[in-house]
Amino acid sequence: MKKELKLTVNGQPYELYVNPKTLLVEVLRDHLGLTGTKRGCESASCGACTVNLNGMAVKSCSILALQADGAEVLTVEGLAEGTALHPLQKAFLDYGAFQCGFCTAGMLMSANGLFTENASPTIEQIKECIDGNICRCTGYNSIIRAMTAVAKGGYTEEQ
User: Fold this and answer.
1) pTM for this entry
2) Order of strands across the sheet with 3-9?
3) Which of 1, 23, 47, 65 has the fewest CB atoms within 10 Å, counting from its CB?
């Protein structure tokens, strides 16, 4: 029997009915069409499905959608404001912090979760933040450089 789910995603309120075993990643991709959140390992190991739930980075493949009832969810589609890229998105572009792009949304959302908690993280904190995100292309150095540039205040939303 389906249950009612109310949540706000990228500032937009939604009310829908889902099966109790439906995962948050399934609601985002299949019900709301937000395909920036990727399905990767489906065991919370790769981080491709990372979103921000009430400001905290979480792996949406490990959360039942009904656990997010009443919550605020931010996906990669909600980072930019119109055509103005979020500072993390701009830094990732400038530093070439992606190649194939499959992990990028999860990396950005993990980074955003860190910066929500700590506007000036250390390199060690940045490395710890992305420890749960697997990237098979970049070798992580460009991702760390991009996040470090944001941490040093080198990027603002006005750029």
Assistant:
1) 0.93
2) 12-18, 3-9, 72-74, 50-53, 56-59
3) 1
Residue type, 2: K
Could you give the CA distance from residue 122 to residue 50 in angstroms, rounded to a whole number? Answer: 21
Sign for the CA dihedral angle at 123, 128, 133, 135 comes to: positive
Rounded distance, CA 116 to CA 55, Å? Answer: 7
Residue type, 102: F
Q: What are the tens digits of pLDDT across the range 108-120? A: 999 999 999 999 9
Distances 96 to 54, 62, 124, 134, 146 between C-alpha atoms, Å: 29, 29, 21, 16, 8
Q: Is the pLDDT of residue 2 over 70?
A: yes
Describe the crossing of helices 141-151 and 104-117 by its angle, rounded to 10 degrees.
Answer: 30
Please provide the size of the chain in residues: 159
